[in-house]
Amino acid sequence: MRDNVKGGALTEVTFYILLSLYKPKHGYAIMQFIEENTGGRLSLGAGTLYGALNSLADKGWIELCSEKDGRKKEYLITAEGREAAERELMRLHELTETADKIIGGAL
Q: In this structure, is residue 59 part of a structural domain?
């Protein structure tokens, strides 16, 4: 996962995973959340998702919050993950405001 921690820029997939985990979810529910909230534009495979979940857990941005039947693991965003998501939201607002001034002013 290529998230620029210094610059604050997250990949789109990382940002959506963090957003999905403001409420506990297992892997398949995360995939559904992302697909539904992007109108099908983003669709993750299991390998991609679980690799990303492991990376986010290693960073301390998400944590395992329950495990059902030894199979369904539920994850939840941590305080540090919320901070990362909030920084990304502020970065995106700044980006769109600048783009709107340039593009909107050109129309």
A: yes
List, for residues 1-28, the tens digit of each pLDDT value: 555 556 669 999 999 999 999 999 999 9
| Burial of residue 39 (number of CB atoms within 10 Å: 0-12, 13-18, 19+) | exposed
In this predicted structure, what is the pLDDT of residue 85?
97
pLDDT at 71: 74
**Model pTM score:** 0.87
CA angle 95, 57, 50 (to 5 degrees): 90
Domain harbouring 85, CATH code: 1.10.10.10
Report the distance separating Cα 45 and Cα 34, nearest Å: 11
Half-sphere exposure of 13 (CA within 13 A, CB side): 16
Cβ–Cβ < 8 Å for 74, 66: yes
